[in-house]
Structures are given as C-alpha cells and as structure tokens.
C-alpha cells in the first residue's frame, strides 16, 4: 500500500511539473504579443507568478473531481450535479484571479476582449475561455490517473497469475515426491529385514535426493548439471533395487550452468521405472540421452515394458508432466510413443524462447 501511494505521488508530481512548464511557456510566448513593451525578464517573472496562482485553483479542482469520481457514491444525477457545481466554483475563482489580480496588479492593464473593448468580470466569452482552460487540465489529470490505475491493475493481475502458477506448480510437484519417498522407504524397510548389504548405500542415496527435493527444488531454477546429478542418484537407488536392469545414461552438455526448472526431467525417469521396469518380470532396460546444444535441450528416454502394462496410471503421470511443461516452457515439444514392448519419450526445450518467471 505504501509503495502504491509513493508511485501515485511520483506520477502526479511529474505531471504537475511538466504541466506547469508547458503553461508557463505558452503564457510567456503569448505575452510577447499582448505586452510587447515589457522586458522579457518582467514577462517571465509575471508568467511564473500567475501560473502559480492558477495552480491554486486548478489543483483543488482536479483532486476534488477525482475524489468525487473515486470515493463519493451517489446516484448518477446527483454525482453529475456535484461535478457541475465544483466546476462552476472553479470557473468563478479563475475569473476572479484573472480579472481582479492578474490584469490590474501583474500586467497593470485592463482586461479587454479584442484589445479595445474592456471585459467585464464575467460574460459568455471569457467564462468559456476559463472553462476550457480548466477542463483541459482536468482531462489531462484524469487521463494520467486512469492510465496509472490501469497499469497498476495490470501489474496486480500479472502478479496474481504468477502466484497462481507457482501454487499450481508446487501442487503438481508435491503429487510426485511423496510417492517416490514412500515407495523407497518401503523398499529400505524390506532390505533392512533381509539385512541386505546395500541398505546403507540406498539410505545415503535417498538422503541426497531428499536434500535436493527440500532445498534445491525449492528454487524456481537451478543449473541443469545439478538436476542431472539428482537423476543419477535416483538411478543408483533403482539399480540397487532392480538387479536385472540395464541403464544407459548419455550426457552431452555444452553449458552445464544452463538453468532449468527442478524436478522436470526426473519425472520421465520416474515414469520409466514405475510403468516400465517395475511392471516387467524379465530383463529390462532404460536408455537416457541428454544433450544441450546452443540453448536447446534434447531429452530422450526409451524403456522396456510389459505388453499388458497399466496404461491408466501412465496417462495420469504424463498429464501431470504435460501441465508443468505448459506452465514453464510453452514452446516445448514433447512426443510419447507407446509401442507394444517399450515407451519412447522425446522432449525438446528451447531455452531462448522461455519466458522469465
């Protein structure tokens, strides 16, 4: 709220400075022809003084109308009536200042209509001139304020959308991490009952993965090198569990520090184990190829599966991954081939076309 007030003050202060300079320039230029005998220094001094006087009329008028527009809740007829009354009082003030102060005390002359015929305090012509001068200023102030409010609303909507996407991404990630944790803890429990020698190694790998999920994955972006390291730890746990598994992992990165959203790539590896290896009874394989060239990531995974695999759970996992990719990388390309004996996934992400979030 404080920053909004500061922003409003800065915008309006800048407007009034620019408006004062514009009006002072126009009046100074006009005085060359109206009072040619005055020296330019005198004309400049007179111009600066009279514009300050006009500001004492124009600023209260502008902010009174803004206050009625934003804060006063009346029937439309009474609201417009209030506008008219405020403007009438402002026109009268403008005429009083012009006729009784500016001309006799600043210009030391009598206000005239055509250079000859004296002008009264108020008549149709001079009242219209005062009205147009004031209404032009009011239009500018309203234009500045409405534009500022629209930009503020646009920023707020953009922030809300960003927060909503962040919340959705957090929920999508949370749907995956607990499943892996509980499954791995169950397996460690089974290995501990059997007093398997690999139990300490699995616990160590799980500790590294959970540390990554809790601390590293909380960031919006991390280096792809760190993300791949987490994939390696995950594969190590799975290889200890699945003795008849062949995993080929090929990595080729020309920029290991390239940033990527955490936990995106590993979800495809999780699916390969969950819906391929875990459902297969015989020899199984997973081939993973990760290439990064000139800001373009090519991610390829191929894994074996049983001919009667549970396709329903596979579709649920892919739906989750697709939604995250839509939110994070709108220009990605993802293809999934479901063949009789294998799954083939290919993902391409162009980091040059990734919006900053």
Secondary-structure topology with pairs:
Elements: H1 2-34, H2 40-71, H3 76-107, H4 124-174, H5 177-193, H6 199-214, E1 222-223, H7 224-241, E2 245-253, E3 259-260, H8 265-277, E4 284-293, E5 296-304, H9 311-328, E6 333-338, E7 342-350
Parallel strand pairs: 2-4
Antiparallel strand pairs: 1-3, 4-5, 5-7, 6-7
Tell me the span between the first and last alpha carbons: 23 Å
How would a textbook summarize the main sheet?
5 strands, mixed
List the helices and strands in order. HHHHHHEHEEHEEHEE
Task: Tell me the strand percentage band.
Answer: 5-15%
**CA-based shape:** rod-shaped
- The overall average pLDDT, rounded, is 82
Tally the helices: 9
- CA radius of gyration: 37 Å
Spatial order of the strands forming the largest sheet: 2-4-5-7-6
Q: Please identify the structural class as seen in this structure.
A: alpha+beta
Low-confidence stretches: none
Number of strands: 7
Helix content: 55-70%
Transmembrane segments: 12-32, 52-69, 81-102, 122-144
InterPro entries: Bact_2-comp_sensor_kinase, HATPase_C_sf, Sig_transdc_His_kin_internal
Keywords: Kinase, Membrane, Transferase, Transmembrane, Transmembrane helix
GO molecular function: kinase activity
């Amino acid at each position: 709220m404080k920053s909004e007030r500061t922003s409003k003050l800065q915008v309006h202060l800048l407007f009034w400075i620019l408006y004062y300079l514009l009006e002072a320039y126009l009046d100074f230029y006009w005085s060359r022809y109206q009072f040619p005998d005055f020296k330019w220094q005198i004309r400049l001094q007179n111009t600066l003084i009279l514009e300050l006087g006009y500001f004492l009329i124009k600023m209260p008028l502008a902010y009174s109308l803004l206050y009625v527009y934003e804060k006063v809740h009346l029937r439309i007829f009474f609201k417009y009536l209030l506008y008219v009354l405020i403007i009438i009082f402002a026109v009268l003030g403008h005429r009083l200042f012009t006729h009784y102060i500016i001309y006799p005390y600043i210009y030391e002359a009598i206000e005239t209509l055509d250079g000859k015929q004296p002008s009264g305090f108020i008549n149709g012509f001079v009242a219209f001139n005062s009205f147009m001068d004031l209404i032009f200023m009011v239009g500018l102030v309203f234009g500045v304020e409405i534009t500022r409010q629209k930009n503020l609303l646009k920023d707020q909507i953009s922030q809300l959308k960003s927060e909503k996407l962040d919340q959705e991404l957090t929920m999508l990630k949370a749907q995956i991490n607990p499943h892996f944790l509980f499954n791995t803890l169950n397996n460690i429990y089974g290995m501990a009952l059997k007093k398997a020698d690999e139990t300490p190694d699995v616990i160590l790998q799980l500790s590294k993965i959970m540390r990554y999920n809790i601390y590293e994955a909380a960031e919006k972006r991390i280096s792809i090198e760190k993300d791949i390291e987490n994939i390696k730890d995950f594969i190590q746990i799975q290889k200890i569990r699945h003795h008849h598994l062949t995993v080929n992992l090929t990595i080729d990165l020309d920029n290991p520090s390239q940033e990527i959203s955490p936990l995106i790539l590993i979800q495809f590896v999780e699916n390969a184990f969950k819906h391929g290896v875990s459902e297969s009874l015989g020899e199984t394989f997973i081939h993973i190829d990760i290439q990064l060239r000139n800001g373009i990531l090519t991610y390829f995974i191929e894994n074996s599966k049983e001919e009667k695999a549970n396709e329903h759970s596979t579709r649920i996992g892919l739906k989750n991954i697709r939604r995250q990719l839509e939110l994070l990388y709108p220009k990605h390309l993802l293809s999934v081939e479901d063949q009789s004996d294998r799954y083939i996934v290919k993902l391409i992400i162009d980091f040059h076309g990734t919006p900053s979030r």
